[in-house]
Amino acid sequence: MDSLAPEVRAILVRPRIYLGDGIAIGPGKIDLLRAVGETHSISAAARSLGVPYKRAWLLIDSLNAGFGRPVVSTATGGKGGGGTSLTKLGEDLIAAYDALEKRLNAAAPPELEALHALADRRD
Predict the structure, then answer these.
(1) Which domains are delineated in the chain?
(2) Which of 13, 43, 91, 95 is 20 to 30 A from 24 via CA?
(3) Model confidence at 1, in pLDDT bands (50, 70, 90)?
(4) Which helix or strand (DSSP H or E) is residue 93 part of?
(5) Mean pLDDT across the stretch 56-63?
């Protein structure tokens, strides 16, 4: 990405991937998973992204259903308190998405520059 001209660096490819009919992974879900990993809380992650808790839970639930296993692990309150953490699947999803995003952005400078040039034209 560093090979891009300074004005083009703000343009990034953030892909949405469809794995069959049941799984869609995109920047919103990945950002949510990343925030859950940082905050250890779905509600705190939702707040940090400006997303209603119900929407955050539905996004996570759609990933759980699509993969047939959980992307986060939740623990209810009690003496040590509750909390949420990413499962290995959740961590692997973030890593795979980040690798894909990095590769796409490394390969995309000519197309990104062409799109930027089109945006600059005010005919």
Answers:
(1) 17-109 (1.10.10.10)
(2) 43
(3) very low
(4) helix 88-107
(5) 97
The DSSP result for 102-123, as a single string, is HHHHHH-HHHHHHHHHHHH---
Q: Which of 94, 117, 121, 85 is nearest to 11 (CA)?
A: 117
| 32 close to 60: Cβ distance less than 8 angstroms | yes
Rounded Cα gap, residues 20 and 18, in angstroms? 6
Instruction: Quickly tell me which residue has 């083009």 as its tokens.
Output: 8
| pTM listed for this prediction | 0.83
**Rounded (10°) angle between helices 53-67 and 42-49:** 120
Q: Which two tokens stand for residue 89?
A: 């699947």
